[in-house]
Fold this sequence. Notes:
This protein is an alpha/beta fold. It has 2 domains: 2-104, 2-Layer Sandwich (Nucleotidyltransferase, domain 5), CATH 3.30.420; 108-300, 2-Layer Sandwich (Nucleotidyltransferase, domain 5). The chain contains 14 helices and 11 strands. The strands form 2 sheets. The chain has a 6-stranded mixed sheet, with helices on both faces. Strand 1 and strand 2 (12-21) form a beta hairpin. Helix 11 packs antiparallel against helix 13. It is globular.
Amino acid sequence: MRKACIDVGSNSLLLLVEERTDSGWRTLQDCSTVTALGEGVKQTGVLAPEAMQRTLSVLKSYFELAKSLNCDEIHAAGTMAVRMAQNQVEFLELAAKQQTPISVLSGEDEARLGLESVIFDPLFAGQTKIAVIDPGGQSTEITLAERTQNTYKTVFSHSFPIGTLGIRSNFMPSAKPNAEERFRAMLEADQFSEVSKSAKVFANDGPLTAVVLGASATNLASIELQLTNWEPERVHGYILSFTQISQLFDRLCSLDDAGRACLHGIEPGRERTIHIGALIIERALFALGAKECVVSVRGWRYALLERGLHP
């Protein structure tokens, strides 16, 4: 049995292909492409025609790749950019017309699946109290949960309308943002303070493990490791301290898009938003009162695929 799940994100598309074996799921393909589907959607309310075409082209190639790998099931799901777009129906109809149908996840589903991708990851089997941070192009999900034997109890879960593309467009438009832009972006990201009270009470009985999903975290880890090729086994479980992330934010803001694109470890197309990803993670950790975070290469697509391709 082989299955494929495609995350149609606000900033990138991610394809996961896994095969069911006697010992569990085995990854055959895990790749991503930046298409910036959600760029400008907060200002205009719609997905731009060029962004839709870029995304649909990559989506079609991902379906073809999954079929070439003999997948029994292929499922694609859109997130915040698709949820908020006034022309959502048009985009979904275009996808269906090219025989690459897309469903749409709610913010609640996205947060829950992101949590499940961590809770059921053997790497975190020994962690009781978990905070999952999932920054995206137009939203960031933060979930607090406590493990109870083979299941978990959610203490706090919210999808915040804060993402790297939204902040780039509205608060830090310059390639090399100045102090005023950084300050305005920080104030926007500090909406995460809503989680602070819950996190403080939650952490009273024991240490909290903060786990960050998504490309911002994996790219920051790759930059720190100065990887010249994608090495998920080195990135998965990599620990980034609050201080490291703050320093990375300052360093990345001192460069322009072209300068960031030259860094070892950065994914092509991520140079426009990686510094903002660092800021979002930093402010989320601040709200949680966490001194560090663990990077996970497993996003919600893993949970969706492994639980049956249905949210």
